[in-house]
Specification:
Length: 271
């Protein structure tokens, strides 16, 4: 009996050891907004919020208010540029602070159908081989109708990483729903960039059908560079604006500045 217990204990320990990578990967999920989403080679808190931006077109000044990843209007409308290297793990805590109802009101099925009757719009129904005859038939396209403008998720566009738009992450079920993060909630993305990943400039943006378009038009998007970091500070995030120098996290001072179309390296590390 004692031998049987020892065999069972050893087998259970071995099974748990083999499952640890899977269990750690399963940590990609909703989290308490007070909890961290760290431990990767690159760690980032990405916050979706409503900001007011001053714009000037010609001699005319405007005020624009919209949804964005920018932490402050001084950094521009887009979110921070993320710098990674092949082989990095990237952990992103997505915070949905889109709690201010700035509109617009989503269209009703009838309004949506009427808009699709305009010239050129019928191409959206090309896969149905014929145009939808009435609003009652729009149920087949219900998931793509504009709605839930303050719900969101995240897609790293072009990266060869785990499938991360659907719930659960890394599922290959074609019927799986999109990850849907309501206002006031947070999600922890833990993704791995392959060591042989092509270098280049990619981008990130929301991909929740019904709200992705209006969020991207507002400013919820940013660049993601895979390659040798321009800054020697490992695992830090650079923030880009056309008017200000690049800035790293607390590990770097005066990290890198942008001039013309090339990098000028002017880095002082405090690490």
């Amino acid at each position: 009996r004692e031998n049987a217990k020892m065999v069972f204990s050893s087998t259970a320990s071995l099974a748990l050891f083999l499952l640890l990578p899977c269990l750690s990967h399963a940590a990609t999920d909703f989290i308490n907004c007070k909890d961290p989403c760290a431990g990767g080679d690159v760690n980032l808190i990405l916050t979706a919020t409503v900001q007011t931006f001053p714009l000037k077109i010609g001699n005319t000044s405007y005020t624009y208010r919209g949804r964005t990843y920018a932490s402050s209007p001084e950094y521009g409308i887009m979110g921070p540029t993320i710098y990674t290297e092949p082989g990095d793990s990237i952990h992103i805590k997505l915070v949905n602070n889109l709690t201010e109802p700035i509109g617009p009101a989503p269209p009703t099925a009838v309004e949506y159908w009427n808009m699709l009757q305009n010239p050129g719009e019928h191409i959206k129904y090309q896969r149905y081989k014929k145009r939808v005859p009435s609003p009652a038939h729009l149920k087949v396209d219900e998931d793509n109708m504009p709605r839930h403008f303050d719900h969101t998720n995240l897609h790293l566009h072009g990266l060869d990483v785990q499938v991360h738009m659907f719930d659960p992450v890394d599922t290959h079920d074609p019927t799986a729903p999109h990850i849907n993060i309501p206002p006031g909630q947070c999600y922890c993305y833990k993704l791995d960039i392959p060591s042989d990943h092509p270098v280049g400039m990619y981008w990130y943006h929301p991909h929740l059908h019904g709200s992705a378009a209006i969020q991207m038009w507002s400013g919820m998007l940013g660049l993601l560079y895979v390659g040798k970091r321009a800054c020697p500070c490992i695992g830090t995030i650079l923030i880009y604006t056309a008017l200000l120098p690049y800035k790293c996290g607390a590990a770097c001072l005066d990290c890198c500045t942008w001039a013309s179309t090339r990098w000028k390296r002017n880095c002082r590390s405090t690490m």
